[in-house]
Amino acid sequence: MTQRLNLTVDRIKCDGRGLCAELLPELIRLDDWGYPILAAGPIPEHLLPLAQRAVEDCPVLALAIRRAEAVKG
Length: 73
Ligand code: SF4
Prior knowledge:
By secondary structure, the chain is α+β, with helices and mostly antiparallel strands. The protein is built from 2 helices and 4 strands, in the order E-H-E-E-H-E.
Protein backbone atom coordinates (compact mmCIF):
# COMPACT_ATOMS: atom_id res chain seq x y z
CA MET A 1 0.00 0.00 0.00
CA THR A 2 1.22 3.48 -0.72
CA GLN A 3 -0.32 6.85 -0.05
CA ARG A 4 -0.99 9.27 -2.84
CA LEU A 5 -1.83 12.92 -2.50
CA ASN A 6 -4.53 14.44 -4.64
CA LEU A 7 -5.57 18.02 -5.11
CA THR A 8 -9.26 18.73 -4.52
CA VAL A 9 -11.43 21.82 -4.81
CA ASP A 10 -14.60 22.66 -2.91
CA ARG A 11 -16.74 24.06 -5.71
CA ILE A 12 -19.18 25.63 -3.27
CA LYS A 13 -16.48 27.70 -1.56
CA CYS A 14 -14.44 28.54 -4.67
CA ASP A 15 -15.08 32.04 -5.99
CA GLY A 16 -13.34 31.44 -9.29
CA ARG A 17 -10.73 34.14 -9.27
CA GLY A 18 -8.07 31.78 -10.49
CA LEU A 19 -5.16 32.52 -8.17
CA CYS A 20 -4.48 28.79 -7.84
CA ALA A 21 -4.04 28.42 -11.60
CA GLU A 22 -1.46 31.20 -11.56
CA LEU A 23 0.45 29.49 -8.76
CA LEU A 24 0.21 25.96 -10.13
CA PRO A 25 -0.41 26.02 -13.89
CA GLU A 26 1.14 22.55 -14.17
CA LEU A 27 -1.92 21.04 -12.45
CA ILE A 28 -4.67 23.66 -12.60
CA ARG A 29 -6.26 25.37 -15.56
CA LEU A 30 -9.36 27.52 -15.64
CA ASP A 31 -12.64 26.93 -17.38
CA ASP A 32 -14.41 29.66 -19.36
CA TRP A 33 -15.88 31.11 -16.15
CA GLY A 34 -12.57 31.19 -14.25
CA TYR A 35 -13.18 28.10 -12.14
CA PRO A 36 -10.35 25.60 -11.70
CA ILE A 37 -10.08 22.32 -13.54
CA LEU A 38 -7.66 20.03 -11.75
CA ALA A 39 -5.37 17.57 -13.51
CA ALA A 40 -6.38 13.97 -12.83
CA GLY A 41 -4.26 11.70 -10.66
CA PRO A 42 -1.85 12.20 -7.79
CA ILE A 43 0.28 15.30 -7.36
CA PRO A 44 3.79 14.63 -8.72
CA GLU A 45 6.28 14.81 -5.86
CA HIS A 46 8.27 17.67 -7.37
CA LEU A 47 5.09 19.79 -7.49
CA LEU A 48 4.07 19.20 -3.87
CA PRO A 49 5.64 22.42 -2.52
CA LEU A 50 3.82 24.48 -5.16
CA ALA A 51 0.57 22.61 -4.50
CA GLN A 52 0.94 23.32 -0.78
CA ARG A 53 1.49 26.99 -1.54
CA ALA A 54 -1.62 27.12 -3.76
CA VAL A 55 -3.66 25.51 -0.96
CA GLU A 56 -2.38 28.02 1.59
CA ASP A 57 -2.92 31.02 -0.67
CA CYS A 58 -6.48 30.22 -1.76
CA PRO A 59 -8.40 33.18 -0.30
CA VAL A 60 -11.47 31.10 0.60
CA LEU A 61 -9.69 27.85 1.58
CA ALA A 62 -11.41 25.95 -1.20
CA LEU A 63 -8.33 24.05 -2.29
CA ALA A 64 -7.03 21.05 -0.36
CA ILE A 65 -4.52 18.22 -0.55
CA ARG A 66 -6.05 14.91 0.44
CA ARG A 67 -4.56 11.49 0.98
CA ALA A 68 -5.94 8.67 -1.12
CA GLU A 69 -4.81 5.15 -0.37
CA ALA A 70 -3.86 3.10 -3.34
CA VAL A 71 -2.69 -0.46 -3.74
CA LYS A 72 0.74 -0.72 -5.29
CA GLY A 73 0.51 -2.57 -8.55
S1 SF4 B 1 -7.59 30.17 -5.58
FE1 SF4 B 1 -9.27 29.17 -4.46
S2 SF4 B 1 -11.04 30.48 -4.82
FE2 SF4 B 1 -9.51 31.03 -6.35
S3 SF4 B 1 -10.04 29.78 -8.15
FE3 SF4 B 1 -8.51 28.64 -6.96
S4 SF4 B 1 -9.73 27.30 -5.61
FE4 SF4 B 1 -11.09 28.90 -6.37
